């Protein structure tokens, strides 16, 4: 029996970055408030704004959207009781949207517009006795939330608000024998969660606890003949995994372990040459999430001079991380 591999065939090859089309795609995103997609994505509005703002900043086009109305929206999303931030006005706060909001405010250099102390208190309230974090009051535990917690606290300079040692021990308890990490102890390794755990260890200065050789091999094996990367064995390639895998390898100093040229070709093939924007894989409809991660991965690959440098740990422009005076660790080999 032949060994069947899940992959895609790149049919319409696009060689160039469609820069102006992407700027237009993001700037117009969400402009039409009656748009079906706009109404359906209310539950992740805050993250949608973060994806758009970051993508535009990476392209040096931040002035294409209205800074003041975004800041006003964020202020209205901070819960006066818990201090957490919700995805949209009238929704419940969650650690994921709190991170998105803090990232946007750092890019706009205006953290003082919200109650930062209350955010630190909110993050503290979500830490559990075993060091893990709830995402919100409903009590789901996931290593993604551990990453969100330390990323938020690093950005607002309130790292002392949680028990870091316990937080690190919990994340390490989610590592697997293949070198990867899952969402909780004994859960399967997954590239998105590996990014969260490697990013967590980068922020908390604990990268020495990684089995880098083993983990980097697992990550390299995510590259398929099309050049694209998948998130787990036997899955299809997807542009967002270009980010999760590449950022993890970059933090571990092993970006050169994958074939950059083929990956770049795969990412460029996922551009929509009519509307602009990137889709998950070639031929599908574009969305703002894959547009940020496509551009972010291209920035990490470094071949495009029109893109600003992106920080692999925070998925934010490098100059913003420097301005915040944060020094996430990476391995140099
Ligand atoms: Zn995806």
UniProtKB/TrEMBL annotation:
Alphabetized Gene3D superfamilies for the sequence: 1.50.10.20
Alphabetical keyword list: Metal-binding, Phosphoprotein, Prenyltransferase, Repeat, Transferase, Zinc
Domain (Prenyltransferase alpha-alpha toroid): residue spans on this chain: 18-316
A GO term, aspect molecular function: Rab geranylgeranyltransferase activity
Pfam families named among the record's database cross-references: Prenyltrans (PF00432)
Reaction(s) the record says it catalyses: geranylgeranyl diphosphate + L-cysteinyl-[protein] = S-geranylgeranyl-L-cysteinyl-[protein] + diphosphate
Co-factor note (free text): Binds 1 zinc ion per subunit.
CDD domains in the record: GGTase-II
Protein purpose: Catalyzes the transfer of a geranylgeranyl moiety from geranylgeranyl diphosphate to both cysteines of Rab proteins with the C-terminal sequence -XXCC, -XCXC and -CCXX, such as RAB1A, RAB3A, RAB5A and RAB7A.
Subunit (UniProt): Heterotrimer composed of RABGGTA, RABGGTB and CHM; within this trimer, RABGGTA and RABGGTB form the catalytic component B, while CHM (component A) mediates peptide substrate binding. The Rab GGTase dimer (RGGT) interacts with CHM (component A) prior to Rab protein binding; the association is stabilized by geranylgeranyl pyrophosphate (GGpp). The CHM:RGGT:Rab complex is destabilized by GGpp. Interaction of RABGGTB with prenylated PTP4A2 precludes its association with RABGGTA and inhibits enzyme activity. Interacts with CHODL.
Cofactor(s), names only, from the UniProt record: Zn(2+)
Entry's family note: Belongs to the protein prenyltransferase subunit beta family.
EC number: 2.5.1.60
GO cellular component, one term: Rab-protein geranylgeranyltransferase complex
Identification of the protein by name: Geranylgeranyl transferase type-2 subunit beta
């Amino acid at each position: 029996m032949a060994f069947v591999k899940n992959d895609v065939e790149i049919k319409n090859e696009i060689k160039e970055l469609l820069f102006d089309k992407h700027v237009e795609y993001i700037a117009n995103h969400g402009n039409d408030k009656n748009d079906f997609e706009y109404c359906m994505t209310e539950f992740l509005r805050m993250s949608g704004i973060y994806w758009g703002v970051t993508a535009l900043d990476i392209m040096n086009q931040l002035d294409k959207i209205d800074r003041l109305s975004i800041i006003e929206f964020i202020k209205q999303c901070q819960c006066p009781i818990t201090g957490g931030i919700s995805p949209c006005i009238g929704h419940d706060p969650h650690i994921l949207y709190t991170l998105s909001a803090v990232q946007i405010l750092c890019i706009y250099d205006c953290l003082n517009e919200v109650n930062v102390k209350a955010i630190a208190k909110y993050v503290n309230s979500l830490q559990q006795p075993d060091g893990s974090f709830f995402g919100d009051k409903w009590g789901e535990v996931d290593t993604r939330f551990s990453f969100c917690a330390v990323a938020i606290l690093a950005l607002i300079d309130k790292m002392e608000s949680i028990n870091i040692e316990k937080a690190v021990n919990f994340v390490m308890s989610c590592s697997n024998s293949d070198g990867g990490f899952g969402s909780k102890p004994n859960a399967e390794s997954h590239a998105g969660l590996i990014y969260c755990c490697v990013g967590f260890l980068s922020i908390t200065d604990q990268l020495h606890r990684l089995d880098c050789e083993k983990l980097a091999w697992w990550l390299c094996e995510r590259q398929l003949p099309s050049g694209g990367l998948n998130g787990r064995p036997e899955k299809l390639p997807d542009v967002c995994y270009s980010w999760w895998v590449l950022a993890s390898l970059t933090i571990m100093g092993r970006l050169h372990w994958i074939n950059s040229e083929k990956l770049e070709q795969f990412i460029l093939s996922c551009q929509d040459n009519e509307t602009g924007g990137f889709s998950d894989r070639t031929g599908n409809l574009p969305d703002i999430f894959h547009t940020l991660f496509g551009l972010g991965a291209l920035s990490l690959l470094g071949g495009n001079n029109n893109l600003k440098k992106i920080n692999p740990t925070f998925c934010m422009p490098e100059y913003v991380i420097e301005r915040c005076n944060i020094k996430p660790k990476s391995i140099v080999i």
